[in-house]
Amino acid sequence: MLQVTDLRVDYGNITALRGVSFEVREKEIVTIIGSNGAGKSSTLMAISNIARKSGGSVHFKGQDISSLKPSAIVRAGIGHVPEGRHIFPFLTVQENLMVGVSGNVRSSRATTAANLDRVYELFPILAERRNQNGGTLSGGEQQMLAIGRGLMVDPEMLLFDEPSLGLAPIIVETIFALIQKIRDFGKTILLIEQNANMALAIADRGYVMETGNIILSGSAKELANNPSVASAYLGI
Amino acid sequence: MNYYLQTLVDGIAQGSIYALMAIGFAMIMGILGLVTFTHGEVIMIGAFAGFYALTFLKTGIFVALVAGFAAAWILGLVIELICYRRWPKGPDETWLITTIGVSTVLKSGAQIVLGTEQQLVPDVYTGFWTLGGVRILHIQVFMLVVLFILSAGLWLFLKKTRTGLELKAVSMDKTAAALLGVDVRRILVIGNAIGCALCGVSGVLLGVYYNSVHAVMGGSAGLKSFASAVLGGLTSIPGAAIGGILLGIFENVGVLFFSSGWRDVIAFLILIAVLLVRPSGLLGRKGAEKV
Ligand SMILES: Nc1ncnc2c1ncn2[C@@H]1O[C@H](COP(=O)(O)OP(=O)(O)OP(=O)(O)O)[C@@H](O)[C@H]1O
Ligand SMILES: [Mg+2]
Q: Which residues contact residue B208 at a Cβ distance below 8 angstroms, ignoring those fewer than 6 apart?
């Protein structure tokens, strides 16, 4: 479904990606794990065409989307929940969610209302806070809001950049259960995580990234049992 | 006593023009995330559009306001094309420099094409009411009504429409907006055009109120809108409206105590005082951009 080929990204004279290739098939959960600064976020930002690619290509459902503008990529069916939440601080929770409708190609009054209900059902705390400014939410609530916004877009594929970052363990469980649920709705998922344990537990396949390269790939099981992955990322 | 009330009335009237230009300025700064320098010239072009409508086409004031609005809107589109679109990935300073360049070209071009002399703008609404010894001109009330209608329209637009929501989202976080499917480029174009159009209308009112338009009127007008916006919190729209009215009042009170030569200096003093005492302005929110 998503084919990334020889992707390169440079920031000035810093090279962040040195030719990254991988693929995600329909209805899979694929995870990319790697330590800080490995280039995981840069990969997602390049797919969404926020970060400028200095080489390589991205194909989605057979179509070359490398040079589409970010909003067109979203409307083509790739949602992206970015690292660091990026909540609109002076919009209310509900307004934050409603911005996501811009990227929803199937939006109508009815689908919007249904999507909103679904998000509030998944995150009851957001329903409680719907008229509160996004900037006043706690970190965990902001993360839920960021995910909720991604669901309002209702894309075929979702990119998650460290959705568990800064969340309490119990909420992390919820988030990972939710990601599986989203896949069961028929979505395809690319999941970036530092929490390799959890990520490999729900993923079908995974890639390991280091200093701008993919150094290892395999089924989630293979990776979890790989001794070097275990020592470097699983804390075993 | 009447003397002071009269000053207040005149100040509010004048402030309504400043408020309108400051709202436009705040809108543009909020959406671009930086200060630009084409502002005064947009006001000047709006003023001339209104002037030509009134004198050569002999239209009424409403058509003149629409002419100012439309001319400034179109100029806004051109400015976006020249100043911003061609340099999207550059550092912020790029836009400062391109807008200074375009502003210089507009000012010089206006002097060549429209002439260097002050042009006389015919009177509209010459009547007045006298209320307890205070004179209220019809044109003053008219200006307040224009300010009220345009602010209410803008408020409704931002509050009720999808484009309005996208404008606010883009002004707070362009990356997040883009990742949710907002066409950031389109929003920049629309936001900039709306901001310019409001300035164009303020230019028409400026010309009509003072009975004159001039190719170099943009310098002082740009300063006034900047000072008003800073007073209100730079990118806060209600703040800009309040800032504009206050600046109008301060100016008129100042002239009462000093002399009319001090009028423009007062805007400068206020600008400096606000930056020293409360840099976030009256309604400014710290550390974030907004519309
Ligand atoms: N805007 C930028 N300007 C300059 N360098 C950048 C920029 N963004 C990322 N980098 C650099 O690119 C490299 C990869 O960064 P990236 O954010 O992709 O890493 P990451 O794998 O997501 O790390 P983390 O797990 O900490 O989020 C890092 O060395 C980083 O310093
Ligand atoms: Mg990252």
A: B50, B54, B61, B64, B121, B124, B139
